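If it is no trouble, might I ask you for a protein's amino acid sequence along with its C-alpha cells?
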Amino acid sequence: MIYLYKRLLKSLTKVELFCLVFILTTANAFAQPANNNCSSAQLICSNETLEGTTIGATPGDSICFLANATVWYTFTTNDIDGAVTVSIMRDSLCSIPGTTGDGLQGVMLLSSDSLADPCTDPSLFTQVSNCPSGEFIIDIVGQVPANSRVWIQIDGVINDQGIPTTCNFDIEISGIPVSINAGDPDQIILGESVELNGSGVDPGTFSWSPTSSLQNANTLNPIATPEEPTTYTLTGSIGGCTGLESQVRINIIDNPVVPPKAFTPNGDGINDVWAIGNMDEFPNAVVEVFDRWGQRVFISIGYNFPWDGTRDGTPLTEGTYYWVIQLNRPNVKVSNIVTGYVAIIR
C-alpha cells in the first residue's frame, strides 16, 4: 500500500500535487471542533484564557438566536450566587473576512435538572444571561445560582451576505460564583488571633499556606496568629477546576496605643489628664489602673473621659501606677492585652 501511494505521488504534476495538499490541509483546518456537541462541552475555569473556534462547527438548537456553528462550554458555580461574565474576544481570523456584521454571539443556559444537557433536552433549559453579539468583543453576563452547572453556547452571526461567520476566539470567565475567596484583608495587634474567612471551594479540596501560624490549616476558616505580616494562600477546586487560588494579607500593628509615661494633674491645664493616643480606634477597650499594692484605682470601658489622677474623685498621691488595657477589638478571636506603668507628678 505504501509503495502504491509513493507511485501515485510521483505520477502527479506539480499543480495536481499542490491541489491535493491544499485539499488535505483545508479539510484538516476546518475539522469539527471537539466541543461542537454538549456531550463534549469544554470545562472553563476562572483565571484562565482558552482558545476556541467555531470554524467547522455545525448548528445546534438555541433559545435566543439562530444557531449556525455552535460550540459549547460549561462551568460549575461555588456555594455563592451572583453575577458571572463570559468574555469572548474574536481573533482576526474569520472564515468570511472583509464583510460587515461578521462576528460571534453567545448565551448562558441553566436547567433545574443537573443531569440534563441542552443538546438532548433543550426544553428543560432557560436563559440566564443576556444574548449579545459583536464583531470583536462581547460580554455574556448572567445571574447564576450557587452550586449549579451552567452551559455556554457560542455561535457565529449571519453577516450582511447572509453567510454564517465562523471565527477563532479567546474566552474567559470571571465572577465571585466561579472564584475562590480567601476573605478580606485585616490587621491585628501582635499576640492577637483572627479567623480567616475562606469560601467558594468544593468540600475537602482546599488547603492553606503557610501553615506555621494557623491553628488548623485543614479547615476553611482557620485561626491565624501570625507574628509578622503574612499573606495566606487558599488553594482549592470548584466543579472540576483545580488549583484555583486566592490570597489574603494579615498585617501587624506594632504600637496599637500610645500611653504617656507620666502626667501632671495639678490644674494648670497642661498634661492634667492621662491622654492615651489611638484610643479612639478601640471603643470597646477596658482600661484599668492599679496602685503598687494591687488595688484598682481606675476603670473605664472605652476611653471617652481620660483618667485625671483621682480615685472616685479623690486625688491620688504622686508615684508609679500599673495599667492594663484590654483592647477588645471586634472580629478577632483572641484580643491583645497591653500593659505598662505611668507616673503621677504633682
